[in-house]
Design goal:
By secondary structure, this protein is α+β, with helices and mostly antiparallel strands. It has one domain: Thiol Ester Dehydrase, Chain A (Roll). The chain has helices at residues 22-32, 46-54, 59-65, and strands spanning 16-20, 75-82, 91-107, 111-124, 127-139. It has a five-stranded antiparallel sheet with strand order 1-3-4-5-2. The longest helix has 11 residues, at 22-32. It is elongated, with a radius of gyration of 17 Å. The N and C termini lie far apart (36 Å).
């Protein structure tokens, strides 16, 4: 499925999809020297890979569409993964993205920085399987017009 153009407002972005195939899981396990899969239980890193890979808009385009200076040097401030369900191979997951917070704050490193917090959920027919809470800190570029986060 083609990704929307960067001009699309990410607040109106449709859900995406992530196909967690046995072959993909085997590749991830081989690259990370993880033990072989037991049954259809997928490697837990797919909560991260599926979240970012399944968004219908690349994370850079998503950030730019929000008015963030993604190309000025984004910093991953925090990443947590929770598993209310179970990630399984041979499953197609709906990928939904929710903006939890977008705040402009003073930064010792950047002067001012935008803090974006997303929840990206992988769900199957039985409900949420994994949730990635993804916080990104992006420097504010003074000579560009930015969003008002007050």
């Amino acid at each position: 499925m083609p990704r929307p153009e960067a001009a699309t407002d990410p607040r109106d972005m449709p859900d995406g999809w992530f196909d967690l195939t046995p072959e993909l899981d085997d590749r991830v396990r081989a690259l990370s020297a993880a033990p072989p899969r037991q049954g259809d239980r997928a490697h837990p890193i797919h909560a991260y890979l599926g979240a970012l890979g399944g968004m219908p808009m690349r994370i850079g385009d998503f950030s730019r569409a929000l008015g963030l200076a993604f190309d000025a040097g984004p910093v991953l401030g925090e990443c947590t993964m929770t598993y209310p369900g179970r990630l399984r191979t041979g499953q197609r997951y709906r990928v939904s993205t929710e903006i939890l917070d977008l705040t402009r704050k003073p930064s010792r490193r950047f002067g001012m920085a935008d803090h974006l917090v997303l929840a990206i959920t992988l769900s199957d027919a039985s409900g949420p399987a994994s949730i990635l809470r993804f916080k990104m800190i992006t420097p504010v570029v003074e000579d560009e017009q930015r969003h008002d986060t007050t």
